[in-house]
Automatic annotation (TrEMBL):
Segments forming domain Dihydroxy-acid/6-phosphogluconate dehydratase N-terminal: 66-379
CC cofactor: [4Fe-4S] cluster
Protein name: Phosphogluconate dehydratase
Species in which this protein is naturally found: Arcobacter acticola
Single GO MF annotation: 4 iron, 4 sulfur cluster binding
GO cellular component, one term: cytosol
Source species taxonomy: Bacteria, Pseudomonadati, Campylobacterota, Epsilonproteobacteria, Campylobacterales
Encoding gene per record: edd2
Length: 609
């Protein structure tokens, strides 16, 4: 094993010792080899089985077979989640053939960031993760289940579902994806037209035509943003069927994988000889493997928040130093949009997760000795699912990339380091995605231009006020200020300026899209402006130095000037009304920092200061 990976793992174990022990003791306390529903009263059980068929009622009543919970995030607003409409009936039929039953325990909200991007609804996006976790827990609280299946794909949904699953750590659990849509227009062409639109070179009709050709059917969007990073992480953590994440939606292979995942979950229940609750799978090593996978594939910066929140649900404490240390020793193995032009379908065809995991195991960069839903050892994920005479088989997976322009090797990586770096300085601590940055963009020293919203920057761009070197400072965009919406609207304008040769960068206490990366962006800055962070002090013309190679982010003004300036309390009331935002005031008041997972949930056994 790589010494740094071992050191980070040990750091996490030591840091988490008390909270992890509390979590595992709580899991043990509620664990039972008995059928949960056998402890229920007659009236309770009657309510449980009332809507079932006679066959299902008999199976449920005899206490001899498992009953499986389905927690679904189905809706037909999200293309990635629309295929889930047929999953519950398919899962139920499959399990009934095995003598088991299943029930939809709960449906959780699932919003599409692609729809809300740049609008008020995006301010509920991050908050929805903890809401989803609570929704999953409410469904499972009926306590008539012997295992749980989680249906989710997109940005906040999978992290929320995993937090909910970990709160029922005594139950076996498995995650099922819907799979990506087929490839549409190339990501390179889409990005180009977006920039042309930002410059006024094409109209909305032309832009819409391109966007509709990119997002064109049911299934997950094909760029490598947060949704597809979620699927990679689930495989790295052993919670999803091997190399199954990027099998296209609404195909026979996808259906067969769903059925096999159902049977796999069944074999993990207490009714079998292989009882494996999720608490036995998700460990400190699992999260280290997940972070390594994030770095090796150039995944979404959103996971520097989500992984921390997910880990805390299991009593495991991560911080950005862990990400930074892992990034320094993990080579970048993948070039997927926005780090390249390929999409996840191309990634799958090049060998997908099988190649990536093989490379990482061979290089000693991941812990192979971990539990997974398909057995002990991450090596179980070096396989490839396929159909032979309409029967699902898992054959030996590719260990060498079929397309070296998409998946490389540890011996010849696209970069010697991973795709995410920690920046520190007198402005605080911040994350920057580096996997898509060119060498000349790793150092920017320029005057600040301060904006309150991304719309202000776009207006300034249209007026021709931004043709110069500058650092765009967008403050009061953190979780406490307005829910930390993604600031995706900044990128087309700044991308145009960067292409013109100007030195530009972003500094913000907000988030960028999981598909961002071309423009150097110091994001997730803590402390945020709404909590008195130094970003609130920045004024137009202040010199900011963003130095990726040395991991520095500094405001270059005399210390006495910084002391002289008073942070004026911003009026954030406009963020708290309309579009449902008023319902989340208690979340804004109690949410933690980005480095603490931007969550309302406390660490197990610890009180938040």
């Amino acid at each position: 094993m790589n010494e740094i990976i071992l050191e980070v793992t040990q750091n996490i174990i030591e840091r988490s010792k008390t909270s992890r022990e509390i979590y595992l003791n709580r899991v043990k306390e509620v664990s039972s080899k008995k059928v949960n529903r056998s402890k229920m009263g007659c009236s309770n059980l009657a309510h449980t089985i009332a809507p079932m068929s006679s066959v299902e009622k008999e199976a449920m009543s005899n206490m001899l077979t498992p009953n499986i919970a389905i927690v679904t995030s189905y809706n037909d607003m999200l293309s990635a989640h629309e295929p889930f409409s047929v999953y519950p009936p398919l899962i139920k039929r499959t399990l009934l053939q095995e003598g088991a039953t299943a029930q939809v325990a709960s449906g959780v909200p699932a919003m599409c960031d692609g729809v809300t991007q740049g609008f008020e609804g995006m301010e509920l996006s991050l908050f929805s993760r903890d809401n989803i976790a609570m929704g999953a827990a409410i469904g499972l609280s009926h306590n008539v289940y012997d295992g749980a299946i989680f249906l989710g794909v997109c940005d906040k949904i999978v992290p929320g579902l995993l937090i909910g699953a970990l709160s029922f750590g005594h139950l076996p659990a498995i995650f099922m994806p819907a799979g990506p849509m087929p490839s549409g227009i190339s990501n390179k062409e889409k990005a180009s037209v977006r920039q042309e639109f930002a410059q006024g070179k094409v109209d909305e009709k032309a832009l819409f035509k391109v966007e509709a050709a990119s997002y064109h059917s049911s299934g997950t969007c094909t760029f490598y943003g947060t949704a597809n990073s979620n699927q990679m992480l689930l495989e790295m953590m052993g919670l999803q069927m091997p190399n199954s994440s990027f099998v296209n939606a609404n195909t026979l292979l996808r259906d067969e994988l769903t059925q096999e995942a159902s049977r796999t979950l069944l074999n993990l229940t207490a009714f079998k000889n292989n009882f494996t609750p999720i608490a036995d799978i998700v460990t400190e090593k699992s999260f280290v493997n997940a972070i390594v996978g994030l770095m090796a594939t150039g995944g979404s910066t959103n996971h520097t928040i989500h992984l921390i929140a997910m880990a805390r649900a299991a009593g495991i404490i991560l911080n950005w130093d862990d990400f930074n240390m892992i990034s320094k020793v993990t080579p970048l193995l993948c070039k997927l949009y926005p780090n390249g032009s390929a999409d996840v379908n191309h990634f799958r065809d090049a060998g997908g997760m099988s190649v990536v995991i093989h490379e990482l195991i061979n290089a000693g960069l991941v812990h192979e000795d971990v539990n997974t839903v398909v057995g002990f050892g991450l090596k179980n994920y070096i396989v490839e699912p396929s159909l032979k005479d309409n029967v699902l088989t898992f054959n030996k997976g590719a260990t060498v990339s079929r397309d070296k322009d998409i998946i490389s090797s540890v011996a010849a990586p696209f970069s010697k380091e991973g795709g995410i770096t920690l920046l520190e300085g007198n402005l605080g601590r911040s994350i920057i995605k580096t996997s898509a940055l060119k060498e000349e963009h790793l150092y920017v020293k320029a005057p600040a231009m301060v904006f309150s919203t991304q719309d202000e920057l776009k207006d300034a761009f249209k007026k021709g006020l931004l043709d110069k070197d500058f650092v765009a400072v967008v403050k009061y965009q953190g979780p406490k200020a307005n829910g930390m919406p993604e600031l995706h609207g900044l990128l087309p304008s700044l991308g145009v300026l960067q292409d013109k040769g100007y030195k530009v960068a972003i500094v913000t206490d907000g988030r960028m899209s999981g598909a961002s990366g071309k423009v150097p962006s110091a994001i997730h800055l803590v402390e945020e402006a709404a909590k008195g962070g130094n970003i609130a002090l920045i004024e137009d013309g202040d010199i900011i130095c963003l130095d990726v190679k040395n991991g520095k982010l500094n405001l270059e003004i005399p210390s006495e000037e910084k002391i002289r300036r008073q942070i004026k309390k911003a009026d954030l009331s406009a963020n708290h009304a309309n579009y449902g935002r008023n319902l989340f005031s208690i979340v804004r008041a109690n949410i933690s920092t980005a480095e603490e997972g931007a969550t309302i949930f406390d660490i197990i056994g610890k009180e938040r200061s």
